[in-house]
Amino acid sequence: MIYAIGNDHGGIDLYDSVKEKLEDLGHEVIHVGTNSKDSVDYSDFAQKACQKVLDGQADFAILICGTGLGMSISANKIDGIRAACVSEAFSARMSRAHNNANCLCIGARVIGNETAKMIVEEFVKTEFEGGRHQRRVDKITEIEKR
Ligand code: RB5
């Protein structure tokens, strides 16, 4: 799978760990930035990474800011993106299993490197269960169309 990673200056400290975990698990990473601690706007990088998913250049997006919140609020404004902001592994797993999340958001000021790696591993290894959950996800898509 291909993962597009976007981060702002607040999220940059987790980038290396997330990239390393994805590559250890055999996945490819596209990094859309930012590459420095200079202040930037998280919504720009949420859009860049999510666009890779919408264009089919990536299968999933992973967004990292200080809290994960600005990234997730931004990403969930984009039609076709289902972003989950999580800070522990169980929610990461359920975001895939029940919500078919295609975007994982984490906060570098909330969790440390090892928790981030556990979250990424659960997200990556979990398949969407479909069934009744598909019906619910379809209703989210209906909300987008209004
Ligand atoms: C940047 O200071 C910070 O506001 C941002 O990384 C994020 O936490 C916003 O939700």
TrEMBL record:
Tell me the name of the encoding gene.
Answer: rpiB
| Broad EC category | isomerase
Protein known as: Ribose-5-phosphate isomerase B
Q: What is its EC number?
A: 5.3.1.6
Q: Which domain of life is it from?
A: Bacteria
SUPFAM superfamilies xrefs: Ribose/Galactose isomerase RpiB/AlsB
User: Which residues hold D-ribulose 5-phosphate?
Assistant: D8, H9, G66, T67, G68, L69, G70, N99, R109, R132, R136
Cite the entry's keywords alphabetically. Isomerase
- Positions of the catalytic residues: C65 (proton acceptor), H98 (proton donor)
| Record-linked InterPro entries | RpiB, RpiB_LacA_LacB, RpiB_LacA_LacB_sf, SPI_LacAB/RpiB
